[in-house]
Design a protein that fits this description.
5 copies of one chain form a homopentamer. By secondary structure, chain A is an alpha+beta fold. Chain A contains 8 helices and 7 strands. The first copy, chain A, has a 7-stranded mixed β-sheet with strand order 2-1-3-7-6-5-4, with helices on both faces. In chain A, a hairpin with a 4-residue loop joins strand 1 and strand 2. Chain A starts with 31 loop residues before the first strand and ends with a helix. At the A-B interface, helix 3, helix 4 and helix 6 of A face helix 5, helix 6, helix 7 and helix 8 of B.
């Protein structure tokens, strides 16, 4: 997940609506696939030419195109032209730093979202830009990477079970966003487990590394929060909008989805609170350790420094030191020193320093 | 109480509205009980078959079903079908991580809540998912665990006293939610007592354990807050909704309930403020202890290190050290050392280090 | 002032509207007094039987009853029945943990407030539950304790001067709430003086006790805030409400009262900010003291430890140590040690450690 | 500037609308001056009797009275009666702790504000209560102190230039409030300079005094914020109000004034953020200094304590210590000690403790 | 970027609407340039006399004037008079501390903005005051400094490509503001890189300088936030306003621009969160270092102080010390000391202090 600020590489003052791919450079070819379905029929997924990615009023159901890559500007332009998309929409599709948003236009909706997944190898969050354009009878899905995270939905379509086959593109859009939000729950679970491990570690064995991990988890939560907050707004606008493109029936599902986004936000906030508490425990346990170290030093010093003084006294070479000639001088000094040590130890015990 | 994030175990992209039990696995059988009452009559609680859990327009009063377990998906589906519930509602009933919410449908309301209780054994908070579906003449209560926390209400019904027998299912729903909120007060009381103990402990005898407890209480408050905040919204929506399912008369009671939820929130926030203050006192008292330890070390060192030096001087073996031959050399050194100690003690006293 | 959470002792699930006294147990008898006034006449305060506490349409002015104790449930029920109060209202009157609120019913308003006073003996805040029910021609004031904090108002009535005699029960309600808010100012003044003392103490002579006091003041401010915030809302609702029970003329006074509640809130927030700053100064001055202690330790150790080493060298008993036989060996060692001390002192001076 | 809470000295329960001077006691006489102007004419400022301070419909322009002192209750009452002011308005004029507010009455507006200035001598903020009552053809300005901070406005009137002569009392009120807000900018500038000095000091030479100054600046910002926030609301209400007393033309100027109040608030918030950052730097630099001190102590101790032990060994008086008889024992010990010192120094260098 | 508070140098009480240049003094001459374009034609940029900067209804397209300097008050007044600008607008153009705002007047809009750029030399932020006045067929751009940051827009006009040539002054205003917001992204990128460097530095090698840099970045983020927050409002008002001066078509672009401002705000907030976390890591790593230093001191002292005591014992000169005569006394002491050291080392190892 990019560290601090998503960068926008267009030169300042350049024309708005000019489509530029903003993101890590790539050379992989871009595939466009099509799935068609209606209440009665289903056409399996197949690769099509970008120019075929256009509205087709002859199909009674939904035409679902997937463009698996947004780094080929020409394809974006072709598809945009075919569906009559506003230049700004095509620009936003190509901009992988675009924040989640929903915009309604004549005849179609444009929806941008962030899919967050956990990369197994690096155990780091990965954020992927997802754009959805949908209207009467069609939906175009633009993915940043050609991974197929939405295959369960395709399987549901193929199986023909559930509500999805009988519904329009609005329900498909809902299903896609629902899958994205479901991924948030998976990420939250991972982070939740890390937080739990941290909570134990911070008490049992806090190291400098613990602090580093706390800081990392905090940043992941900030990143999650940044993606999910506008998502909530997106779903909310979909529920409120009076457009005929979103049926009343689907709005009940969107209400449920809204509830899920609130749940994610809520969990993120809760974990932020807990991680902050964990940091307090960490800092305090560092302080406690210092205290412990200092107590050992103080006890050792306070006992042996006076003793060293005493033996120093009888190491002096004065000619006239009567004690030195005493028969029991040496044992007497030992006794005195033992007594002193006892007194000091008792004192430190009472202060609970030992 | 589950630590960090309530987990939602459904695979991402799976069909919404598919009923899956989300929670700790269980094998206990699910009992469905029915209580019937009206202004005139009362039918005592008895176990019924899930298929009998359906609307019965022949009864003039209220039909109250209790399903004591949501881990049997078949029963949920049967009951859902009998009452014509939306698939998403049945899904939410089976999802024990569902946040509190209220949703109005044609002919019924769906209300999800969290019941928070203190487990006596572990002295930990326990959160239980409670779902209520109510409409004209019926109310179905879904409990996560088969404990009967609502028996006082059943007793009130049986006794036939109070407003409850003469009112509809809306009042019963109110009474159930009111009982849930009352449990919050009990939990708050427990936490309040722990906070008070902490406030004393932090001054009298702060240990690493104190910090741990502060952190635990903080987390419990976070959990409480998370359950009660949406609850307030639930009650607010019930008051505002213009549905005929909730009578004007019951709204006065809901207004009072709303007031109670605000009271809970208020207390939670106040305790959070206080616990934060307690943490400050804790940290500061750790600092103070360090200061005290360091003062002892400094006083001991500052007095005995110079003395040790002095006796070291007269422990030197130089041939020409006139002092060593002096008759009163030894007592003079002692006098000097006593004087020095006196001066240093006076100094430290003035600095209030002793 | 009750420490953390105001407790509500009713068992969960018990019938709402059942009147139970919630608070510290008491056995003092409850007195009901009546004051009557109108533009022309005034009937001095006298004790009446609870059953006489009922609306009396024969009196042209205002009938003001004061019930000085809410721990006698029977009296509350009697009065409630006489005035036709909603069971929930009577319940709230008996619940001393009730938050401030205003509720309008047919024919009367119910207003709950907290009176905050400083107990002279313990120098602690004391919170008292005050309930006011008022309607056309009557006002019933319920006090938690039989102290007469509203006697200045009674005196104004008796004196017959001012607007109060000529106005209705709405103005009397305003006057009572105004007196309550005035008490907040007095409490704020007390706290303000403590804060000022703290600000001096924290710089001149910070002790562990200072921290304790900071924490106490913080808690008092939290308690004040908790009482005054809903109070503002209460006054605001009174201004906004279109009920004929509150005349337009009185609303000008309520606007002024609203202004006062805002002033109190403002002062509380300001003091919270200042007390937080004071805590920072405290913590920092503790740190500074540690620094000072450590500097003394370091200077003492850094000077005498090397010296002790030097004298230790010449305390060694080697047979071949030429220095020991030197004529000026002893003075030379002294000179060297003095020079070393000088150098070290100069160094510490430059570092500003002395 | 009064430290914590502005005090309100009226006894609780006293009659609202009774005019009492709340503030520091004073005996200076109160002067009332009048300036009259219209598009054509201008009557220079002259002292008038309070009884002459009344509406005079014969003058076609604006009648501007200035009452320079609010501690003479009789004058306030006289003027209030002459202009038919509501008793609460007159009370607020005499209450120097009144928060800024605007209240519209029939025929006039009452506006309270705080003028904040820097006292040159004490370099402390001084807050002055300013009240403005204006209506068709008149404006009465009440000042807490007889200083003339508004003389530039009088000069503009006299010079006859600008918009002010041709406009009504609404424009004059705007001009007065604008002057007050302009003073905020001057105060902000002073504080800004102190903040800049602090930012340097905290890095170059932080002392306990630095902390004190940080705390003082913080409190001044809190005080400023408290005065300017309600001011914004005052201006906002003036813009929104549909009263004929404020012309549409003046509202454009008020919009500009609103902008200035927002600017002040913004600057105050920014400075608060910066001063908080400065506190962090301060605390951290105190920590750094402690670290430095401890390093010196540790280096000194770690080098000399082992050396002292070594020389102690050869100061022992055992009869059979072969080393003591060795010819090169003494130089060998020195060599060993030098080597040890070298190793330790190298080690500390590598740890960057020196 | 001016440190704390933008200063406003006008004397308090001076006439509003009087044009005064507020900013750093300058003597550079002010150039006024004009660019004209319409769907068909384009007139290249050329210098014109200020008096020629006036509306010209004969040109069918857009007349774009650029005044590159606001320190010449006469030119501002001339231009203001030519376009019939309100005196307050001209005042705001000359006030370089003016906050971003949008104000609609009859026939024109006034828009103030802050352009933020990174000065390459000093690596400091530079804030520049930009004012835009636009209406039907004209746009006047006032720049604080004569640098041409908007040349890409001029180039687009000249090239005649894109939407800009065919659109009105509203689109040009949008393009200018869009360019300003694009500069924010560039600044954010720079800061983002510094934050990333800081995050590494704070773990690898934290110095006092790190803290200073953290504080600096924090201040830059505060400054950015202060400029961009009102900017969002400006764009929002442009979208909402129903004025015919902004066409519906341009509003789609403004919606996109609004989205960008939200993105900037979002990134600023995220970086603030991260920089705060970085400060925590810094402070904690300072604490950790102190701990490490103290451990070394404690280990050294705890080992050698007892040893020194032991050798001191046998340095005493008592006549009767049997051990001194023992044949193996000396080796026995060494053995004992080695054993003690071993035990202590083992102990410290177990405590993980070494």
């Amino acid at each position: 997940m990019a560290a601090v600020s998503k960068r926008r590489k267009k030169p300042a003052g350049s024309s708005p609506g000019s489509v530029v791919y903003v993101g890590v450079e790539k050379n992989t070819p871009v595939k466009v696939t099509r799935v068609r379905y209606s209440g009665d029929g289903y056409e399996a997924s197949r690769i099509v030419d970008p120019s075929e990615c256009r509205p087709d009023s002859s199909w009674p159901g939904v035409d679902w195109f997937t463009v698996d890559g947004v780094h080929n500007v020409d394809i974006l332009k072709t598809v945009g032209a075919n569906f009559g998309l506003h230049p700004l929409v095509v620009e936003d599709i190509g901009n992988t730093t675009q924040r989640p948003k929903l915009e309604g236009f004549d005849g179609y909706y444009f929806l941008a979202a962030k899919m967050i997944t956990y990369e197994a190898r690096s155990s780091k969050l990965k954020s992927e830009h997802v754009s959805i354009v949908f209207g009467q009878g069609f939906l175009v899905l633009f993915l940043q990477d050609p991974e197929d995270l939405f295959s369960p939905i395709r399987q549901r379509l193929e199986a023909g079970r559930g509500k999805i086959r009988a519904s329009g593109s609005d329900y498909l859009a809902y299903a896609l966003v629902d899958a994205i939000v479901d991924y948030y729950f998976h990420v939250l679970e991972e982070i939740g487990e890390r937080v739990e491990r941290l909570e134990d570690e911070v008490v049992v064995n806090p190291t400098v590394n613990t602090l580093r991990t706390i800081h990392d988890v905090k940043r992941e939560l900030i990143a999650l929060r940044r993606s999910i907050w506008p998502m909530r707004e997106v779903v909310n606008v979909m529920i409120r909008d009076e457009s005929p493109l979103i049926s009343k029936d689907v709005k009940i599902y969107l209400r449920d989805l809204y509830d899920h986004t609130v749940h994610v936000i809520d969990s993120v906030e809760t974990m932020r609170d807990i991680i902050t508490g964990t940091l307090d425990v960490y800092l305090s346990s560092v302080s406690n350790r210092l205290n412990q170290v200092m107590k050992v030093l103080t006890v050792m010093s306070s006992i042996f420094i006076p003793l060293t003084f005493i033996v120093g006294v009888y190491g002096m070479n004065f000619q006239y030191m009567p004690e030195l000639q005493w028969r029991w001088g040496y044992p007497a000094v030992w006794l005195f020193m033992l007594a002193l040590t006892g007194v000091l130890l008792a004192l430190f015990k009472r202060k609970k320093w030992m």
